[in-house]
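cron nightly-structures :: item 1 of 1
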Amino acid sequence: MLPASAATYEWLYRKFTDGTDSTWLCVCFVRGLSPTEALRRIGVTPGPITGDYGFGVSAARGVGGTVLIEYGWGHVCYTRAGALSEGTDAAAVFLTDDEGASRTTPPAG
């Protein structure tokens, strides 16, 4: 594995802030599922932040499965990690710099 620093991931911060200098980000790794199947399991259509919805989801094939990246306040990937992990493994991380944000623990799965 190559060494990484905060600068290595600066693009992630820049891409997934909400335009008001607030960061809301969820990343989920799912073993053995295609991006299409992962999105179907959580009932989400990928796309950018639009209108009043406040969140968007991107899915990409990774080595051994799928990576879901969600930005905005929705944290759907995080709260639906149980559905993603049925019959396989999933790991989800939710991050925000909003100290008043509610934290929801994903169900075991």
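cron nightly-structures :: done
The longest strand covers residues 24-31.
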